[in-house]
Amino acid sequence: TREWQLAARPHGEPTPDDFRLVELERPDPADGQIVVRMLVMSVDPYMRGRMNAGKSYAARWEIGETMKGGAVGRVIASRSPDVPEGALVLADAAWRDVAVLDAAHVRVLPELPGIPPSYHLGVLGMPGLTAWVGLFRLAEFRAGDAVFVSGAAGAVGSLVGQFARLKGASAVVGSAGTPEKVRWLTEEVGFTRAFDYHDGPVADLLTAAAPDGIDVYFDNVGGEHLEAAIGAFKEFGRAALCGAISGYNATEPVPGPRNMFLMVSKKLSLRGFIVGDHADLRGEFIEQVPPLLTSGQLVVRETVREGLDDAVPAFLDLLRGGNTGKMVVRLAQE
Ligand code: NDP
């Protein structure tokens, strides 16, 4: 078995030296355990937090221990009556090619014709549910709302915009980091307007893209984007604070929005959330999203890297915007 371990805690932007790939003897499965060959693993922004010594919402990775993250794999041996050989499973278990796991810690996935296993790490998985929960529960989206989403060309953001459009948004505006992403959002994904946040002050770009203001902001980025959204809100505007990736590599506390008094005068609500606390919405999510996919109403794109060796470059690229849609690493072909 080969696996990635954390070699050092980064100061600022992580580098390849913070990780090491090791080869280990694979233990035999005990009673209640299964052996899983990983097909595809996820790299996600929250993993940056797992590299730090401090407390984050996901358990930190220890130096010298296996790094773990979402992955989908095929059971190649089983000593559990609940999870048979051949089952497709989701586990918080890769960065590694093969894992011996407790059957109780995996979720058996349905085999959906025409749906690649990687979709369980994106549109049908944690990022998809995050988009759903943030938009519908936290931001209390309703038909007719004008919506702004940052990180719009990413896994979560591209779905937020599409869920909003499909549920009757009056306008969906997105921001992203390259002209190609902006083009993809407006020409293929169905955003009303989009802009590259490198093209000027975000507040000016947002005013130009949403001159009548916004009702809902889905924040993936924080910092200047959040301040701009507060400025652009109409009365009773609502934000779901999902992430703040512009500050994940910061070595000093990042400045807050300077226009917080607008929270009072415009009677805004800004609500942070962690998707894991909203598992009760998984039922409606799993009922409603697969049909949107199979009927072709959702545009889904992935950035796929090949092989366990490429997992670290994929993760470092994700933090720098090297992905459009969900970033995944394919570990084996079926
Ligand atoms: P993405 O697929 O959106 O990938 C991350 C993207 O962030 C990059 O593609 C890059 O795109 C963008 N980015 C990087 N640096 C900056 C910057 N300085 N300013 C603006 N954008 C930047 O990742 P996910 O969809 O998986 O996650 C999106 C956000 O949601 C993250 O903040 C993540 O932490 C959060 N999240 C929160 C969850 C929760 O439960 N609260 C659950 C899942 C995700 P670009 O080229 O546009 O810069």
UniProtKB/TrEMBL annotation:
Q: Which InterPro entries match?
A: ADH-like_C, ADH_N_2, ER, GroES-like_sf, MDR_fam, NAD(P)-bd_dom_sf
- Database matches in SUPFAM superfamilies: GroES-like, NAD(P)-binding Rossmann-fold domains
- GO molecular function of the protein, one example? oxidoreductase activity, acting on the CH-CH group of donors, NAD or NADP as acceptor
Taxonomically, the superkingdom here is Bacteria
Q: Which UniProt keywords apply?
A: Oxidoreductase
The answer on whether this UniProt entry bears the keyword Oxidoreductase reads yes
Q: Which residues form the signal peptide?
A: none
Domain Enoyl reductase (ER): start-end pairs:
14-329
> Under which name does UniProt file this protein?
Enoyl reductase (ER) domain-containing protein
